[in-house]
Amino acid sequence: xxxxxxxxxxxxxxxxxxxxxxxxxxxxxxxxxxxxxxxxxxxxxxxxxxxxxxxxxxxxxxxxxxxxxxxxxxxxxxxxxxxxxxxxxxxxxxxxxxxxxxxxxxxxxxxxxxxxxxxxxxxxxxxxxxxxxxxxxxxxxxxxxxxxxxxxxxxxxxxxxxxxxxxxxxxxxxxxxxxxxxxxxxxxxxxxxxxxxxxxxxxxxxxxxxxxxxxxxxxxxxxxxxxxxxxxxxxxxxxxxxxxxxxxxxxxxxxxxxxxxxxxxxxxxxxxxxxxxxxxxxxxxxxxxxxxxxxxxxxxxxxxxxxxxxxxx
Length: 313
Hints:
Layout: H1 3-17, E1 20-21, H2 24-31, H3 59-64, H4 67-75, H5 79-89, H6 97-172, H7 176-198, E2 203-207, H8 212-218, H9 228-235, H10 244-254, H11 263-268, E3 273-277, H12 278-310
Parallel strand pairs: 1-2
Antiparallel strand pairs: 2-3
Helix pairs in contact: 1-7, 4-12, 5-6, 6-7, 6-12
């Protein structure tokens, strides 16, 4: 086999190894996501709670509920209930004992209902993020398996080629010129296979019109993909702290998951999708996991709030 023929073969092999996977069954699975029910949220800035420092809060309540829990209470819209609950608990007003007990029960039920409802919403959003993470990880695993299979074949090919060249040049071929030509050809072929393994980067087209990560990145005033109180929670900031949304983006940048200056990130991760490598898919899955963790932690804060409310005297 002539050298230029071998080089041509290697070039074709390298191009194929870096190509995009076209599998109709896999593409169908990618498109048909069941991670969400296409929930679209419609709200405006007026639906967000007022800043806590602009709300009149009962003095006794301030002493018994921590500032962090008051922030969460304001986020889920129960400050008014808590103000009234604190006053009734402390017998402020002209209520009989029976009326007082009934009022406490009524207010406690309303507060618990809001907390439980918020918990359900958090679980729903977290489950979508978790599902997307698992879905993307599964596709990344499939792509990695494809890459690994090709690398195994290339490794075997390089071993066979090297062994064959060694045998042929070691005495089978008596003609020195032919032996040298075979040695050079097999050497080039082995190097080519090595380069092909090095640049073996398979990709797969992965599209995502519904992209929660885009809202985290762009930070619109309201989000049609994230409920109002969770969006408020992620974007709330005061003089001493950045918003959780900005902290998430900063962590993505600090750990090298994204490059804030690269437009490629915006197009791939935060756009409608494109051709992903296995590493890029794993990175996208990690981003979903980190966002899910931040949102799910809100449940711990709800639990702390509920405990502090039960201890109001």
